[in-house]
């Protein structure tokens, strides 16, 4: 019998802030580039065609002395019963003896680490004075992308919201956005989150029916949809734009025109995953680029890759979501939970 | 927040008996042969070369309305600190909505379902009047193989114990065997387990230094070691013998001479796993047989395969261990736990 710490979604919400999540995800990318981590093969399965999917991402973080996995599922029909479509669990094990350490509800955790990923692309690869962000998609993950990007990129003062399914989703989302952003803690040390409230108030949020006109003044786009066809076309974009493509995580998914890859510098979280299940897969399949045209973002964070070199360069960050993000954030959550005495300890 | 039932190893010990475990495993094999289940790709990783391994097995059982996974690790150095080398967890999720249902300590569960698998091979494929069993290997899993086989094959009255590393392991094991068998519940309905005690007393246990002479009167062999080279050679065996090969579950593992496959009928739990990570891999690699020479044991259970046809036939059952065994047994454990009000419910 060993003790295992169980952390609910509420526990995670009480522990996790944007700044620490971003720090963990950047660290995971850097450790990966330094080969101090291992990513195990992903299990990605359709459970019921068009209605339910599941994936298991696993790996190990040597420096943090943990290995583990995250199982996340999507059950589309849940919405009809008012239940969340996406649920999941993270399991953390001790790299010294294999014993289980913690089980963590992965819902909020996934939103936060995915938001961190999208924002890291914008922070490191968009133009230095980027002012306008466009978010494509208004599902549960969208708010985390906006929150993390506003936290990390202080120059942004306008956010266009585009929903490819219907405009009403975008306009509805627009009116709830400040309240929702306020629920996500930016910085755990900013006790009353005062500067975060000011930051939110400093931004204009604008729902748009079509992206074409808004793209003329957009500096960075984050795509976060389950799309299987391009939503943004090469003819619509101007030089200097950045894309963080976050939605594609399975074979057949695609959010932007593969022709944009012809004129872009491409960064990814993991070359294998990006070229097989990420946004990059469609450009690879079309023969527009090969794996050797891809740079892992961890190489940039470590200073081994140069990143953007001019205000005209078009950049893409393809974030497929890797287990190391989950493990690094989970390890942080567990350390804080021990410190704060949060969660339920069960002997197993 | 959803409720999840946490079941410790002690909880599992209080719930699980041999007869129900065997029934669950046979049902899992049959459902697999009937395509009412899905096995997802296995993740099998060496963590530290020669010192630690980990695997994640996952799948879904449509009829039981569950999907899930088992993560099991082996950390060899744990023994030096008096800790168990093998630990693991099973996670069960609801196939209706993806919500987590239960987390179960997988130690005892794994022993029981692995013992059930080995015994199912002996029960269905050894000669009808099999009297003598040989167990090769005296690690933690050995007792479960013996227990399940004595439960399922009533004609066996002698068990040879052979340890390929050193004889002392076998002779030590021999003296603890009746006490250890007594700790494993055979039939939950046999309240005081009276007939089980009688059954154990009816058997002779004999440690042997080498297997050669004992094999002359052995009807069925179960191999349960981490070996990477053959331990039983073709020259040593007689017609009519059965092998349940249970130890091999990774690339490079092997317990019996691949030449035995030249003269044997071969049954497996899963053709893909058996031919890549099971005992069968070495015979496949040597060109002795192909995948089309393999029959899944579920086909026999369903009555679609004929099984043994004479007392001279040599049979092999290659059990690599599939997620469906774990899921079927886990589902049974959870149903019993609900009925008996066992375990800890945590809101996650």
TrEMBL record, chains A, B:
InterPro entries: NAD(P)-bd_dom_sf (IPR036291), ODC_Mu_crystall (IPR003462), ODC_N (IPR023401). Pfam families: OCD_Mu_crystall. It comes from the Bacteria. Coiled coil: none annotated. This is Ornithine cyclodeaminase family protein.
């Amino acid at each position: 019998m060993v003790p295992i710490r169980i952390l609910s979604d509420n526990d995670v919400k009480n522990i996790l802030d944007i700044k620490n999540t971003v720090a963990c995800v950047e660290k995971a990318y850097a450790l990966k580039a330094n080969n101090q981590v291992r990513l195990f093969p992903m299990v990605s399965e359709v459970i019921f065609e068009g209605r339910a999917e599941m994936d298991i991402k696993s790996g190990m973080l040597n420096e943090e002395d943990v290995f583990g996995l995250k199982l996340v599922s999507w059950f589309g029909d849940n919405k009809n019963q008012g239940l969340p479509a996406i649920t999941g669990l993270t399991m953390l094990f001790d790299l010294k003896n294999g014993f289980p350490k913690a089980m963590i509800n992965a819902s909020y955790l996934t939103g936060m680490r995915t938001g961190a990923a999208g924002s890291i692309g914008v922070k490191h690869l968009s133009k230095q004075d980027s002012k306008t962000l466009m978010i494509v998609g208004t599902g549960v993950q969208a708010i985390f992308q906006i929150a993390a990007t506003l936290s990390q990129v202080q120059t942004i003062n306008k956010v266009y919201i585009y929903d490819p399914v219907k405009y009403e989703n975008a306009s509805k989302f627009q009116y709830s956005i400040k309240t929702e952003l306020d629920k996500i803690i930016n910085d755990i040390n900013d006790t009353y989150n005062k500067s975060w409230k000011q930051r939110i108030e400093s931004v204009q949020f604008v729902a748009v029916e079509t992206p074409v006109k808004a793209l003329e003044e957009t500096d960075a786009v984050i795509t976060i949809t389950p799309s299987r066809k391009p939503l943004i076309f090469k003819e619509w974009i101007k030089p200097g734009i950045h894309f963080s493509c976050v939605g594609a995580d399975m074979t057949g998914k695609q959010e932007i025109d593969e022709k944009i890859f012809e004129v872009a510098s491409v960064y990814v979280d993991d070359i294998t995953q990006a070229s097989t299940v990420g946004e990059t897969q469609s450009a690879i399949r079309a023969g527009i680029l090969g794996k050797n045209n891809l740079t892992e973002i961890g190489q940039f964070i470590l200073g081994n890759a140069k990143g953007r070199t001019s205000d005209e360069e078009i950049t893409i960050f393809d974030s497929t979501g890797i287990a190391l993000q989950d493990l690094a954030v989970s390890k942080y959550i567990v350390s804080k939970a021990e410190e704060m005495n949060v969660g339920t300890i069960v002997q197993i």
